[in-house]
Each structure stands twice: as structure tokens, then as C-alpha cells.
Amino acid sequence: MSLLPDVDRILLGPGPSLTAPRVMRAMAAPTISHLDPLMMALLDDVRARLARTFRAAEGSFAFAVSGTGTSGMETTVANLVKDGTRATVIVTGYFGDRLAQMCERYGAVVTRLAVEWGRACDPDALRTQLAETPADVLAMVHAETSTGVVNPVRELAAIAREHGALTIVDAVTSLGGMPLEVGVWGIDAAYSCTQKCLGGPSGLAPVVFGPRALAQRVTCRSFYFDLSLLEDYWLRRKYHHTMSSTLVYALYEALSIIEEEGLDARWARHERNHRALLESLAGLGLSVLPREGERLWTLNAVRVPDGVDEAAVRVHLLETFNIEIGAGLGPLAGKIWRVGLMGASSSPRLIVLLRGALESALAKQGRQVPA
Ligand SMILES: Cc1ncc(COP(=O)(O)O)c(C=O)c1O
Fold it and tell me: How many domains does the chain have?
């Protein structure tokens, strides 16, 4: 008996999201080698599309690392942080903490600007922090998937620049789903993943280094994530590792879909569907954790009502309706469900489906929908 799934899971968790059907079809194209002339043409095209999707400044280098979002995180850190680098890391949740750990592993002296889970970083707190403890690098998460909170990256990056620090931004849950302007906001390096708002499978990590970051790179301790060796492959066609053509097809198609939809229109779709979800949840007596103005459109942290068995609801959704939503992490475990509306999963049809399924799950626990 095959263990492969024969049902399409409806992926409404923190990621992966649904893979767009066109992307699935693109992955069926014939395998080519990592040095094939066709592959080189694809890499050039993907580089240009990624630079546009990140809205990167002239002179930036946008490309994709073989690996998931964490490999993008590691690539930016490994090339901008060395022993003794002073790094301030804004920690608003689980992934901010991972970023701080990554900087520590590469030898940085890390100062954590810790913010209560469920809140965004206050720009004044950063101003005070950088005045007291100067930093060479500021690292932060744009869309904190563990809490559903968006950080005001534009303001935070401007403050970092005033203080002479390079900025590294985690855009794993924002690229393609929330406004992000790497060039205009003065972000020096950013990374993302393919399996959330881009609508692909996991396996590649889009990364961008701006001109300042390219000039201030450090000697990289990692072979696999060495920016100069990756430039040798992407720009000078020199073998570094056997990049998967199948995943490059997927990214190429996902980025083509984004450009056909239009980035601004795509952001607007994510916002519209987020608001529709909130309304739909309110009808069930449910609300989200972050306050207005700090909410992600891509990931909704839904409060579990008192007396409701949160795990039983997730199991009911999966077993009865084939719908996946996520559990809370760390201090929010048992307190929230994480509902992702990203990429192909950001759709009104799925919001209607989820509402019906949640109503059924809550009714099973004796909770009726408020009149
Ligand atoms: C904000 C954020 N950063 C980093 C990661 C790590 O990405 P991956 O699991 O693709 O390695 C995730 C994963 O969900 C994330 O949400």
C-alpha cells in the first residue's frame, strides 16, 4: 500500500500553504542539470523576478538558497555576522528567538530586545536600546508567525540606519502577502521561503542582499551558505552544489503567477481575506490575539475560548473536514490556533469552509454559535 496522500489537505495553518496548481504542473517538467544552459536562463529570470518581488534597490543581489526559510536566515547571518559583531535582535516571538540563536552561533555578541508575545516592537524602545547599546547589525522578524503580529519594519529599519547598523529582516511569512519594500525601507538583507505566501512547495529560500550588505560581507564560515560561492554559481556559472531544477521550476512559476496578479493586488487580496476571516470568526464568537494595526493578514492567531479543548478542535477539523490549522507555540501553546491565509490558501471559498468546520467542532464540544 502506498503511503502517499490521496486527498488534498486544505492547508490553513502556519505553512506550508496550498501549492498553486500551475506550480504543481511546472514541477512535472523534465529534470535538467544545474549547469544546463536552460537552467542558467531560468536562474537569471528568477533573480530578476525575486528582485522585483522583494522590491529591492538597484545593485542588490536576489537569489534563492537550496533549503527552507531557515537556510535563508542562516545565509544572511553567516555572511554579515562574525566573531564579536554586535547584533541587536528584536524578539517578538519564536522566530525572533531563532534569529538571535543563529547570530550567537556565528559569534555575534547578541543583545535581545524582548517584546511581550502578541505585541509588536515599539520603535521608541529600539531607539533607546541602540542609544544605550550600539549595534553593527539589527535583526528582526517582519511577520512573526508564532504570534500573528507584524513589526513596523519600515520605522525600525530607519532607526537602525540612523545608528549605522545593517538590517537583516525575516520576511518568511510576509513576502508576497504583506507590503514589503526592501529598497525603499532601507533593508540591507532579507530572506523568505517558498511554501507560504509565494504558493510553492518548501525547498528554496529567496534571499536578497542590498548594496551595503554586499560591500560589508564577512568571511563566511559556512561553505554551503557562502555568499561569494553562491555568486560564483548564480552569476559566474561555476559549480557549487547540485541545485534542484524541479524546485527552480516551481519558484519560476510561483513568481510568474505573482507578477500576473500584480504584487499590490496580491497584498490587497491577502488583506481582504484576512478581514473577511475576522468577520466570519466574530460570527462564531471568536477573536484574534493581536490588536488592530499589529495584525498580520497572512497568519491569524485565534484565541481559544475558555473551556474549549484546542487540540480536539484541530483533530476534528483534520479528520472530518481535511482542514489543517496550527497550534500555538511556546507561551501561546493551548491558547491560540494559528490560521494561515497565504498564497493560494488566501481565498474566500476556504474561509466559508473553515467557518462551517469550526462551527461543527465547537458544537461537538457543546458550544453553540451566538445568536
Ligand atoms: C517567521 C519565520 N521565520 C523562519 C521560519 C523557518 O522557516 P522554515 O521552517 O521554512 O525553515 C518560519 C517557519 O515557519 C517562520 O514562520
Answer: 2
